[in-house]
């Protein structure tokens, strides 16, 4: 095995050296050993619900308006409770499982923390 450190972002063991940088082929993160960030100082995006409450992984939320499901005639009704959310990057920043619909991605502006 190599003597290179694991990726500080995704903990991949397949890192390699390119000049003075270490590069992770799995998440494309680049860093130097001198400037290796610690996990507490990483700039994480704070995701808030419609009321301004900060959302975290594992929270339960309620849908605050009827949402049409793209590619279907179904609608997620107002007041639908969603348990155990996961926060992800992107426009739809909540990844969840909704009973009766399956896996969904929601925008945080359409939910309220329970």
From TrEMBL:
Residues 4-32 form the Protein YjdM N-terminal domain. It holds the Pfam family YjdM. InterPro entries: YjdM, YjdM_C, YjdM_N. Residues 47-114 form the Protein YjdM C-terminal domain. Belongs to the YjdM family. This is Protein YjdM. It comes from Anaerosporomusa subterranea.
